[in-house]
Every structure is written in C-alpha cells, then in structure tokens.
Amino acid sequence: MSDRFLPDWQRLSLEQQIAQLLVVRTSGAYFDSQIAYPQYEAPRDRLQHWISELVVGGVILLGGNAAEVALRCQQLQEWATIPLLIAADIEEGVGQRFAGAVQFPPPLALSAIASQDPDRAQQLARSFGEITAAEAIAIGLNWILAPIVDINNNPANPVINVRAFGEDPETVSQLTTAFIAGAQQFPVLTTAKHFPGHGDTATDSHLELPIIPHDRSRLDAVELQPFRQAIAAGVDAVMTAHLSIPALDPDYPATLSPAVLQGLLRRDLGFEGLIVTDALVMQAIAAHYGPGEAARLAFEAGADILLMPADPEAAIQEIAEAICEGQIRYDRLEESLARIWRAKQKVCGARPASFLPHAWEQEPAIAIDLEAVSQLKYWAIAAEILTASQEHQGQPLALQSGINLIVGDRLWQAPYLSGAAPARQLPSDHSLQVQIWDTETGTTPILTQPTLVQWFIRGNPFRGSAGAKQVVETLLQQLLDQDQLLGLVIYGSPYIWRQWRSRLSTELPAIFSFGQTTQAQAIALNVIFQSTDALKSEEFTT
Q1: What is the per-residue pLDDT across 286-307, written as a single tens digit (0 to 9) for each?
Q2: Out of 89, 200, 278, 304, which one is annotated catalytic?
Q3: Which residue spans within 401-541 are E strands per DSSP?
Q4: What is the pLDDT of residues 453-498, one digit of tens each?
Q5: How far apart are CA 49 and CA 52, in angstroms?
Q6: Residue 325 burial (CB < 10 Å; 0-12/13-18/19+)?
Q7: Catalytic residue among 206, 214, 242, 430
C-alpha cells in the first residue's frame, strides 16, 4: 500500500477509523414516516450522526422503490465525508428489494435449467449478474450482497433453500462464477456467502444457531468448493455464516472464529478481499453475545466489515477499548482499513493515481440513471429463466365456474398479490371467483365448488420451516378425493411440487414456477389457460 494513501484514514480519530468497519441498516425510503422496521432502522437525525460524525463506512438498504432509493443514495453520500459502501441483499435482482426494478426468479431456477442445458444456464446466470449490477449502480448501490454460494443439499433448509444456485458443488460453482463474471463488468462489489457453507442445515440462523456436524474432509469435498471457485473468479467479499461447526471451532460460531476466518478463509483458501459478517442482529449471534462483544469478537476473529451491529456506538467503543488496552493490535485495524479503502477505491469513484488526502472529495456526486432501470430486455431475461425452469402437466384448464383459491402464509403483506395481480385477475377472466386464504391469519375455507388452487410457498428467512402446513395439505387432499380440484399452481418450492406432482393424475392441469412475482404468475397461468396471445403481450413482460 502506498504511503501517499495512508492520510485518508489516518486523519480520522481511532473511533472514526473503527466506524469505517461498520455497515448500518437503513430504509430505502426517503422519509422517517416510511420506516417499516424501527428496531433496525434509525431515524434521519441518528443516521446522519452515524454517517457524518461517527463516520460509519457503509449502509445496507431495504425497502422503497428504485427511484426513491436513488435519491436516498445521493442523500447518504452527501452526508458522508468519506464515500459510503451502499449495499443491498439483491440475490434475485434489484427488484427483489426495490419496487420497479427487475426481479428474477430465485437462483435455484437456474439449476433446473442447468440440468437440461448447462451452457444456456451459465449464460443466463451471467446475464443475471450483469443486469443486477447495471440496475444497482444506476440507482446508487455499489455493493451486491450476492451470490449465495451455499449448496442447498438439505431440502428442509428454511433459510437457504431456493436462494441457492443448486444442490451440488459443481452446479453451484459454475453458475455463481458466471453471475460474478457478469457483475464484474460494472464497478460494484460482489459477495460470496455464507462461509463456510449454510446449505446443510434445517435451522434458520435468523432465529437460532444452527450446528453443522461435518468434518473437515467433508467440508473440503462439498461446502468449500464453490467458495474456492468464487475466490478464483475474483469475488470481492465473503460473508460469514452464523453457524456452529465443532470440527472447525468447538467454542465459537464461524462469524466469531479466528480458526474459520483467519485460518480457513485467509490462510488455507488464500482469500485477500473483504470479510463481512452476516447481520450481527440475527438471533444466532444476538441471543448469545452482547452488541459490543459480538462486534469485538467478530473483528478480532478476522472480519473487516461488521454488518448491522445491534448498537453501533457500543461496537465502536468496545473495539476502541480493546485496541487501547492492547487486547487487539492496532495494525489489525490497519489491515482491515486497507482492504476497505481498496474496495472503496474500486466503486466510489477514486482514481488509482489520486491516493491523496481528501482525494475523493474532488469526485462528482454519484450519477443516477433511472433510464437504465426496468428495461424490457432485462425483463425478457427474467421471463426466459421463468419459462425455461417451470414444469407443467395435464390438459389446459376447462372453462367453468368455480373458486380460485390463493393460499399461503403472510399473504397480507405480499406485494405480488395486489388487486391487479395475474393470480387474481386471470382466473377471474375465466369465471373463477377469487378467494384468499392466509394460513397465518385465516380459518380453513369450506369449499363446495370446483377449485383452482394457487399455492405460494417457498423457503424464506424467518419462516422457520421450509415445509408445507398440514392444513393446506389436508385441504388439497380433500379436493382431490372429492374430484373438486380443477388445477394446481405451486409458486416457489420445487420440493413441495415434487411431493404433490406424484399424487396428481397426469391429466390434471398443474404447473410449478420458481417465481412468485406478477410476471411469474402471468407466465404460469397462461400455460394453464393456454392463453398464448396474452403471454406474448407487453403487459406480462414486465
């Protein structure tokens, strides 16, 4: 590292240098009144204090639409004296978190395509990464917290599940390196997660600490393969997993383990980029360690970036005290700052020849380009993945009166089921009366008419389970037994689809889509109703 580069961080106080390690969460929405998660997202005055005075190194955004997120990113960078890393969990494209941009189906859809046409799947994965990066920088994001390189080799996994690119090391490695290559065409950071592998667990680390029982030889043969490939492909960051792996460290979870981060990741795998923790507010960590303690232990273990510490100021204070008391070497902090500076140099506008104090203050404000968002050619790639990965059987649905039952949990907050959603509208156009059953809040419906069932179910963080609810399975079986099931559409889980497909008559109209978006609904239902003209229309492209 050039000595000319040092003053950029040496002009900061010790506490401000430590604050550069922190990435705090905030709402993508512009105003305090729009904050949806006050336990995680600070109001404007506190957030501005963290950025302007504490000098935190970055933010992670959630919520809002793409246009207001662009304004939000500009606002945040204007508050910052040192440019921010602005991150988002956009594993399924920018539209997954920010309305209006393109949302892709979950990555496991690409694995389904790869089983039939590996070359096509890799090209689509590359386009997936390229489009995600293009839309990210267009609205001011510079850090993509993707791809997931975990192997979903446990179908009961409630937290990874369809977020993974596959169920075996080779498929995951091929598709995730293609995604990284696509994203690398733009000045954004990519992230391989969750190290050293969160696939083979049935426990959600958002809720409690999972245990991985495998020995080192098994980890080398399976879980670590995609990380090795991602590192070889030049991934910028690796995110830790909140996992207990006794074979690697009997005392600490991976996020807090020097053996895992410094030993396995740095020394054995040779990774030289950013190590970022998974969110420190997750219960796998927060339930067992205090907010300052968790941040200190993660940093001491080898993490460069502390994501979503429960109490940013406590985290800064505890690490500062440990350095001042000699428990942590100051040059350990310098090592992380050097990595952070290199990352910011790549994505925040500083030029390689301008390693001077205040250099990036000479740079223009971030450029916003909303014309680069939600382009039809991007939606066409999403449609290609949806169409190529879906499965169906049976004859087209015969037109008759009956019920269109939409079932799932937490449907009351599902943005993809608005009044104009195809899952509601298209069956209504074919004389079916819509009925919505939220299994968390509603009672089991009593059905006396022929019924089309549209079931929204997928593994997701905070669900706690990837399986089906017994009440839904009971109702479906009753409709089958009474010969009242008109057809079945499953959106999300290939595992639930496989279970139910074997129970259905081969003539019964049934279809599976990895996606749950309005685009996914339109593509699936137009197969069920055989409405090819509507399928080709621009209305269902976006």
Answers
A1: 888 988 999 999 999 999 999 9
A2: 278
A3: 402-408, 432-438, 451-457, 485-492, 510-513
A4: 999 998 765 455 555 678 899 999 999 999 999 999 999 999 999 9
A5: 5
A6: exposed
A7: 206
- Domains with residue ranges and CATH for the chain: 3-371 (3.20.20.300), 390-540 (3.40.50.10870)
Q: Token digits for 180?
A: 């990284």
- Contact between 523 and 383 (Cβ < 8 Å): yes
Rounded Cα distance, 496 and 354, in Å = 55
206 has catalytic annotation:
yes
CA distances from 468 to 41, 186, 446, 533 (A): 32, 40, 19, 34
Token pair, residue 143, equals 């850090």
Strand order of the β-sheet with 143-144 is 143-144, 85-88, 58-62, 22-27, 306-307
- Assess whether 278 carries a catalytic annotation: yes
**Torsions phi, psi for 374 (to 5 deg):** 60, 40
What pTM was computed for the model? 0.92
Q: Is the dihedral of CA 451, 456, 459, 464 positive or negative?
A: negative
Rounded to whole angstroms, the Cα distance separating 252 from 94 reads: 34
DSSP-derived letter for residue 370 is G
Angle, alpha carbons 82-318-58 (nearest 5°): 25
Q: Are 69 and 139 in contact (CB under 8 A)?
A: yes
Are the beta carbons of 143 and 191 closer than 8 angstroms? yes
Identify the DSSP state of 91.
Answer: B
- In what order do the strands lie in the sheet containing 510-513? 391-393, 510-513, 485-492, 451-457, 402-408, 432-438
Q: How is residue 27 annotated by DSSP?
A: E
